[in-house]
């Protein structure tokens, strides 16, 4: 069930046989609107209603709710109620009280803006709508955060086995804790996302259950390490890691060198010359 204010639809709630409620959309000016109510089986009621709809647009949510202080992050704003987009001529997103960037209307309930360069720290986000009446209307505000780009010093280890529950440590500065914090391993075949844990402003760890990694990577590959703190901005660390398939030992055979020293030869696949392998033997009892 829905109410149509002119051409703008909003959800309707059935109260009784004589009452239906719906929140009017954001309309840029006070006007007389044609109101039509449609149910599941078609038209329910129609008529005209004089409403004053120069209300305050309410921001329902923002994705992402943080951005790099360097600017350039695409932010999507979802409003609680639909807008009469035909009467909105300009859109701006304002951060704090003094810095704004232009925006666009995607549809009656979604707007987008690209963040400007800002100092790092907590801020607020407000959308400002310019109407056909040459007036400006401010929305409600939501919390927003700008984060400095981290400087990465090192990523260790640089070679990891895919068969192990490995952990990669990322050393740098300006790391921030976030629910969307993640590490990305970028290979020629695509991106692998690893869960990340914030330990301090100078240290992050990245890890992933080995079963998922083995399903994602068929052969040993080099991967570029990236970070994201909001799920949208990808920060290049400048470091690579090599993802190695574990050695697969098919057989063991005794052998002797030129000095008649006996040793064991491991025969198999996926051995890597860059790894130091240690052989251990267990003595049986009985």
UniProtKB/TrEMBL annotation:
IPT/TIG domain boundaries: 57-142
Q: Which InterPro entries match?
A: Ig-like_fold, Ig_E-set, IPT_dom
Pfam families to which the protein is assigned, alphabetical: TIG
Q: Which domain of life is it from?
A: Eukaryota
Q: What protein is this chain from?
A: IPT/TIG domain-containing protein
